[in-house]
Amino acid sequence: MTLLPVPDLTTLSRGWRDWILFAEVEEHLRDRGSMNVRRDSIEWAVLHQAADYVRVGVILPDRIQWWDQAGAALSSRLQAWLDGAPVEDPLGPVTNQFFDITDCAEELIPENLRF
């Protein structure tokens, strides 16, 4: 996948009532035929954060931490977070990394996708 649609309303709609986990973005892009799900998911995050459709956060043991980086810095931080997965818990980073949709994104989601 070279170009990702922004806004990706189908994936954003998953955040209507809860956060969108990084794993959910990967799943959606895999279903769409992505040949490099990790790279495309990071690109999705960077593009949607830049468009002010999502806030990027991570669930830590004692708190939620919001990330303020953008562009290449956000891409690098996401990659480092995902690469840092402990061998005993390779799913941890993709289920702890999440996206919270913004009011701007909420306004774009059509009624039929609000679930």
Write the layout of secondary structure elements.
Layout: H1 9-12, E1 20-21, H2 22-31, H3 37-50, E2 54-60, E3 63-67, H4 71-83, H5 92-96, E4 97-101, H6 103-108
Antiparallel strand pairs: 1-4, 2-3, 2-4
Helix pairs in contact: 2-3, 3-4
Task: Characterise the protein shown here.
- Helix content is 45%, strand content 17%.
- The mean pLDDT is 91.
- The protein is of the alpha+beta class and 115 residues long.
- It is built from six helices and four strands, in the order αβααββααβα.
- The protein has a four-stranded antiparallel β-sheet.
- β2 and β3 (63-67) form a beta hairpin.
Question: What are the salient characteristics of this protein?
Answer:
four-stranded antiparallel beta sheet, 6 helices, 4 strands, 45% helix
